[in-house]
Amino acid sequence: xEMEIVFPGGARVDAILGDLVITTDQDGSxxxxxxxxxxxxxxxxxxxxxxxxxxxxxxTDGLRIIQRMSHNSQTRLIDRVELxxxxxxxxxxxxxxxxxxxxxxxxxxxxxENPPAFxxxxxxxxxxxxx
Length: 131
What we know:
26% strand; 3 helices; alpha+beta; 131 residues; GMP Synthetase, Chain A, domain 3; 31% helix; two-stranded antiparallel ribbon
């Protein structure tokens, strides 16, 4: 899998993945890269929770996840992420633990628990040939 990171101007840094362009910036017109990273945790869990509910015909009106993060005061890094899955009224008791298990399947969470190695290097971009 390959993703291209481009610099379209100003404080924008975009990621191109196939036909999708994911825009980030530091000026507030799009999420910052870090806020996009934070959002990926909750939205990934949300995809799994939503899919679980939809597959079983469970109510999703009013379903939401509140994500809270706490910081380590010494490192200034996030040291805890809490996902509060708020279920709609009347949600069947028998599925509550399974909803939590579905959120635990999130691929972002699994990658954070088993982080990949990073290799950062430079290369010289070769000019593309003219048509």
